[in-house]
Amino acid sequence: MDRRKFLATGATLAAVPLAAPSVARAQTSFNWKMTNAYGPGSPFYVEGPGSPTDFCKKVEAMSDGRLKIQHFAAGELIPALEGFDAVRSGAVEMNAANSYFWAGKIPAAQYFTTVPFGLNFQGMNAWLYHGGGMDLWDELYAPLGLKALPMGNTGVQMTGWFRKPIESVADFKDLKMRIPGLAGKVYAKLGVDVKLLPGGEIFPALERGVIDAAEFVGPYQDRRLGLQNAAKYYYTTGWHEPSNVTELLIGKAAWDSLPADLQAIVSTAAMACNLESHTWCEANNAAALKDLVENSGVIANVLPDEVVAELRRVTEEVLAEGAAADPATQKIHDAFMAFRAEHRDWAAVSEKPYHNLPA
Predict the structure, then answer these.
(1) How far out from the chain centre does Cα 320 lie?
(2) What tens digit of pLDDT does each residue of 46-66 get?
(3) I want to staple 187 with a disulfide (CB 3.0 to 4.6 A). Which of 2, 106, 192, 241 is the partner?
């Protein structure tokens, strides 16, 4: 090609402006607010690797400052459990919490936090990202003008703290216990007086005897709340929460206002935090549990087999009743259980044999 013609052509192309809407959309910046169901300073739920504040930092860095998100812990802008309504009204663009807190508004939302005897971290993420779970979440929330993304996962949680030992199902009768989600309905059928309390209210309630037992997360988080100073019997099986998803709730109008690249950044940052938060939990819980047992006199035990068997039986009743009462719940329940059955077939020949190897 003639060099002079090439240079002339290049100059002509350089003089042609980009379509104005494209330039404007690419350069638009956004300043959003995120509220949180958990109190200031809470590891995992507010601060630290993979936390909501870490998510905000990741988004700002990845977007080169085009999307800035100001984070407010519980009580700093709104009360702990009012994030759902705040996002839905447009008062804020985002909220970090767990979807089972909205069970009174949308019963089916509970399936996107955890299901008793359900899926572990690997299985839950497989369902959400590749098994149709995210599509069902979008379908459930879209009529409310909302969108959600998984932004964290604790992995399997401890059954909880009890002021007295649990030796049989009868020990649940008239027990006052802080426990959210579907597991709370299971305990209620066994005679437990179920309480839903924000994290910051658990220790004082347990210490004063307002409640007799409490479930929160796991050794690291529970130790930070001081629960070992209010109860000494610490049980495990993870039956109630084999994993626990942190929900990033987003106003649909706000989401739709973002250009495609910023939507991709938000989605990618949420996925990164989902993995990072879980690995943080895995890295810190072992030492915390050892400290609780060796230095705080905590008695750590597995629930008796007969208790777990009864909890499983009642769980099936509760899930069936909830699904029968609500078409949206039925649809999500059926999809979740179908995936769980398939995933368990695989886990039976992969994870289970490995974990059952002699120590």
Answers:
(1) 23
(2) 999 999 999 999 999 999 999
(3) 192
